[in-house]
């Protein structure tokens, strides 16, 4: 899932590499200062710090190398622990990548888009397939028409399918793919819903900032991020690209042949848990 509207993956990868090199330079500086101390005690302390730092740098280097291999080959490592360590480590480097990007005058929006691309690539490289009923499609409340009087954040089925916003078509996608669909007002409600639904994978639609924070908060749960469209500015009557959402769902969903009885039961469950 590599859409042209997103900033390229190389932006975030380059910034993470810059962060690694910066950390390496800092280690060298500490070593240089420590070796020029007059007392043996200081040299011993600095040596211990350098050894610990080198071990950490070796680990980070392996993670970074693993990320590059994963993205290039579109195939992840078979050990789940290694996969999760890679995603955790990269998420920790994100704030530092933002600071380096600020110094280099790279737009914050582009860095976040690139991070989302890298995350999506690493999730897809795992080639996970989960039952449709264990996939959660999360939407921001701003997709609903601002003038609508029907509250759908507590129950999506309150939508009257008037067609004035994307919600009715998103409900059709829910019914077509048999996934859970929720509309949230923020991170707190999103976390509550994830805890309640207990999905094995998430397709999240939001702006760059909310997607990045949601991806990091949800670790190690696999999250595919899809950017919303903001023709009216942020957080107001936003739109979605339905094709991108369906592609994301299909890339996560297990192929299952549904009977009419299965479909009826699934709709009943969705109404109960909505």
What does this structure look like?
The structure is a single chain. The mean pLDDT is 85. Helix content is 59%, strand content 8%. It is an alpha/beta fold and 274 residues long. It has helices at 9-35, 40-73, 80-103, 108-125, 167-177, 187-197, 208-218, 242-252, 260-273; strands spanning 135-140, 180-184, 201-206, 223-227. It is built from nine helices and four strands, in the order H-H-H-H-E-H-E-H-E-H-E-H-H. A four-stranded parallel beta sheet has the order 2-1-3-4, with helices on both faces. Among the domains are: 15-56; 107-252, Rossmann fold. It is elongated, with a radius of gyration of 22 Å. Strand 1 (135-140), helix 5 and strand 2 form a beta-alpha-beta unit. The longest helix is centred in the first third of the chain and has 34 residues, at 40-73. This is DUF116 domain-containing protein.
Order of helices and strands: HHHHEHEHEHEHH
Number of strands: 4
Give the helix tally: 9
Percent in strands: 5-15%
Helix content: 55-70%
Query: Could you say which structural class the secondary elements and strand pairing correspond to?
Result: alpha/beta
User: How far apart are the first and last residues' alpha carbons, in Å?
Assistant: 28 Å
For the residues shown, what is the average pLDDT? 85
* Structural shape: elongated
Major pleated sheet:
4 strands, parallel
Low-confidence stretches: none
Radius of gyration: 22 Å
CATH architecture designation of one domain: 3-Layer(aba) Sandwich
The CATH class label of one domain is: Alpha Beta
What is the CATH fold-level name of one domain?
Rossmann fold
Spatial ordering of strands, largest sheet: 2-1-3-4
Keywords: Membrane, Transmembrane, Transmembrane helix
InterPro entries: DUF116
Organism: Desulfuribacillus stibiiarsenatis
Protein name: DUF116 domain-containing protein
């Amino acid at each position: 899932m590599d859409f042209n509207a997103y900033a390229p993956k190389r932006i975030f990868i380059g910034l993470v590499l810059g962060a690694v090199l910066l950390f390496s330079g800092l280690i060298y500086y500490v070593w240089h200062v420590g070796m020029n101390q007059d007392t043996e005690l200081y040299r011993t302390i600095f040596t211990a710090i350098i050894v610990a730092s080198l071990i950490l740098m070796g680990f980070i280097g392996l993670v970074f190398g693993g990320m590059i291999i994963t993205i290039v080959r579109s195939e992840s490592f078979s050990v789940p622990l290694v996969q999760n360590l890679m995603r955790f480590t990269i998420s920790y480097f994100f704030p530092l990548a933002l600071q380096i990007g600020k110094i280099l005058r790279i737009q914050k929006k582009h860095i976040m888009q690139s991070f989302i691309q890298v995350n999506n690539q690493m999730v897809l490289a795992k080639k996970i397939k989960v039952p449709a009923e264990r996939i959660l499609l999360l939407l921001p409340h701003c997709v609903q028409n601002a003038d609508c009087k029907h509250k759908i954040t507590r129950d999506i089925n309150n939508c009257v399918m008037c067609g004035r916003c994307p919600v009715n078509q998103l409900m059709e996608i829910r019914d077509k793919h048999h996934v859970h669909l929720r509309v949230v007002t923020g991170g707190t409600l999103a976390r509550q819903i994830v805890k309640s639904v207990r999905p094995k994978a998430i397709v999240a639609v939001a702006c760059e900032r909310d997607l990045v924070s949601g991806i990091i908060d949800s670790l190690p749960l696999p999250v595919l991020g899809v950017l919303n469209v903001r023709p009216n500015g942020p957080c107001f009557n936003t739109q979605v690209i339905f094709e991108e959402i369906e592609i994301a769902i299909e890339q996560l969903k297990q192929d299952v042949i549904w009977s009419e009885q299965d479909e009826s039961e699934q709709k009943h469950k969705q109404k109960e848990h909505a």
